[in-house]
């Protein structure tokens, strides 16, 4: 092989190597960009519901305890219900699943009605003798909502169901605390309703997630 042919062959090999390297870098950059975009979208979906949950938790703990079990329960549960209503309204603006659509509408209707009932007791001022034990138990009942291991999905339907399960569980646990320490007949009945109905709704959401 002549020197000229050898030089041309080396030049061709070198050019081919540079071309393959360039294409490989472009593919890597594209994959990295797609991965970044995927994480960004996942984060945005997560934040839609997570922000509402965080806002709700802040509002639940913002007011100073009055020391009256009926009033303190009502204030905290009102904010808890408002959080569920906002999450349901967010879902209805974006969802695609008919079962969750009906679920969210029921949450809005039922919990708005319960909010109005609880408003009657939020301004009671007389001190409850067991207020310290009640406050401790009430704060512990919200542990389910503080779970950082809640699975994050890429669509709002699944994220709604995944977030609403611990949200409902905290409502059930709060209601059980009130049933132990509360005095008002209407609030006691409300708490029994919450335990029964929201426990059923938790099962409904768990079943929905399992089949999707």
Automatic annotation (TrEMBL):
Pfam families named among the record's database cross-references: DUF305
Domain DUF305 positions: 70-209
Superkingdom per UniProt: Bacteria
Protein name: Uncharacterized conserved protein, DUF305 family
């Amino acid at each position: 092989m002549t020197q000229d042919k050898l030089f041309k062959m080396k030049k061709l090999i070198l050019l081919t190597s540079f071309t393959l390297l360039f294409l490989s870098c472009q593919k890597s950059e594209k994959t990295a960009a797609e991965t970044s975009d995927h994480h960004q979208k996942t984060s945005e979906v997560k934040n839609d519901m997570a922000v509402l949950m965080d806002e709700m938790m802040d509002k639940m703990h913002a007011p100073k305890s009055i020391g009256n079990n009926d009033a303190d329960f009502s204030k905290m549960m009102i904010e808890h219900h408002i959080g569920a209503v906002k999450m349901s309204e967010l879902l209805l603006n974006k969802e695609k699943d008919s079962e969750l659509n009906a679920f969210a509408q029921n949450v809005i209707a039922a919990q708005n009605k319960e909010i109005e009932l609880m408003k009657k007791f939020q301004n009671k001022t007389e001190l409850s003798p067991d207020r310290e034990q009640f406050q401790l138990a009430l704060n512990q009942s919200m542990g389910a909502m503080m779970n950082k291991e809640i699975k994050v999905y890429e669509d709002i339907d699944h994220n709604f169901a995944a977030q609403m399960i611990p949200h409902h569980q905290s409502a059930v646990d709060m209601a059980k605390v009130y049933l132990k320490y509360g005095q008002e007949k209407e609030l006691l009945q409300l708490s029994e309703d919450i335990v029964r109905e929201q426990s059923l709704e938790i099962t409904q959401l768990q079943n929905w997630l399992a089949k999707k």
